[in-house]
Design brief:
113 residues, alpha+beta, 3-stranded antiparallel beta sheet, 2 helices, 10 strands, 15% helix, globular
């Protein structure tokens, strides 16, 4: 499948679009995912696995079963116990990594020097 450029969001009263570049992080919400842009959360009916495969790997990294982050919006990483990190987004939101995705975080750190 080709990478996603933008998402089509269907709400009760309208259909609108969110550019992938505006998505700061993605959060699992049951059968949906919430696309967070720093101001709002937009629900789309997709799986985390599908998004992980279709979002550009140079920009998006899976850090937890419930989170995928856009690396352009990461402000800092703070080491925690057992190889996990607290990631602070530029919007001020903290997200915790999990050990199961530590290889992804290590690759991110290696890629950014």
């Amino acid at each position: 499948d080709d990478p996603i450029d933008r998402f089509t969001i269907r709400s009760r009263d309208r259909i609108y679009f969110v550019d992938v570049d505006d998505v700061q992080w993605v959060e699992s919400e049951g059968d949906y995912v919430a696309l967070h842009d720093g101001e709002d959360a937009h629900l789309v009916r997709k799986t985390m696995k599908e998004l992980e495969q279709r979002l550009g790997p140079e920009s998006f990294v899976r850090i937890h079963r419930s989170y995928i982050v856009n690396v352009d919006y990461i402000e800092e990483l703070r080491p925690l116990d057992h190889g996990t990190y607290q990631i602070h987004m530029k919007s001020g939101i903290p997200l915790k990594t999990s050990r199961g995705y530590s290889d992804n975080v290590d690759a991110l750190l290696d890629a950014t020097g």
